[in-house]
Amino acid sequence: MDFRPTRQPTSELLLSFDAPAGERVAIPPVAVPAMWSGPRIAPWRRFLAREVDLVVSGIVGTHFVAWALYGFAPLSADRFFGLFEMRYGAILDALFGAFVAMPLNAVFIGLSGSTIGKAVFGVKVVDGTGNPIGIARAFRRELHVWIVGICLQLPILAYLAMIAAYRRLKDAGTTPWDAAQGLAVLHRPVGAAQRALDVLGVAMLLGWLAYGIYGG
Fold first, then answer.
1. CA 25, CA 121: separation in Å to the nearest integer?
2. pLDDT at site 28
3. Cis peptide preceding 176, ω within 30 of 0
4. Could you tell me what percentage of the chain is helix, strand and coil, using 3-state DSSP and rounding each to the nearest 5?
5. What is the sign, positive or negative, of the torsion defined by CA atoms of 83, 89, 95, 99?
6. Is beta strand 184-187 parallel, antiparallel or unpaired with respect to 123-126?
7. What is the 3-state secondary structure (H, E, C) of 24-73?
8. Is the whole-model pTM more than 0.85?
9. 15, 17, 195, 204: which has the fewest C-beta neighbours closer than 10 Å?
10. Contact partners, residue 138, CB within 8 Å, separation at least 6
11. Following DSSP, what letter does each residue of 147-195 receive, concatenated?
């Protein structure tokens, strides 16, 4: 299956990334695939997409690890997942979920430019030609996000890191993990369809939050 985005029609946009002093510097034009707009700053869409990805990929990754562990070492699996039932189990669950989400998100971004969360909120990560960035570069990006962007999903520190990333994105027009590799982040144009998807994505997050509080 060919995951490369369509290249017709395309437009040329001049992106800006950080100089060491925080000033914007021009980089070569980036081809923008059809049905996508250039690098308008949409931090809330990116934040919400990340939250959806942490939940979805975290659940999928955790279930895959559980399947593998119980298949080969069931007693060790019981001891390991028993940690999640202890006093601080919810914190361990969040840390582990963010860790196992990282490679899954990298695969999706590397092959298609989007993840489930990014597809819902209309976000796509591409290289300078408007194509997906490949799994290796996507993994480096996700590792950077995991360490710097969400601070390993540690309580309090994760949200402080997100606030710092939000401020940098607003001020400089990019994030450290995209600037480091010269990547572009495109957005689906705002319209009725995208607004409906935004509402759907927020409803999904609120549903998961309510389940975690009342049904977990």
1. 27
2. 44
3. no
4. 60, 10, 30
5. positive
6. antiparallel
7. EEECCCEEECCCCECCCCCHHHHHHHHHHHHHHHHHHHHHHHHHHHHHHC
8. no
9. 195
10. 105, 106, 107, 109, 110, 125, 132
11. IIISGGG-TTHHHHHHHHHHHHHHHHSS-HHHHTTT-EEEEPPPSHHHH
Q: Which residue has the tokens 């990560």?
A: 125
Q: Are strands 30-32 and 24-26 parallel, antiparallel or unpaired?
A: unpaired
Q: What CA–CA distance (Å, rounded) separates 42 from 186? A: 10
SS3 at position 125: strand
- The pLDDT value given to residue 23: 52
CA distance 67 to 10: 44
Lowest mean pLDDT among 47-51, 117-121, 152-156, 170-174: 170-174
> Which pLDDT tens digit goes with each residue over 186-199?
999 989 999 999 99
Q: Which amino acid appears at position 33 of this protein?
A: P
Is the Cα dihedral 151, 157, 163, 168 positive or negative?
negative
Residue 158 amino acid letter: A
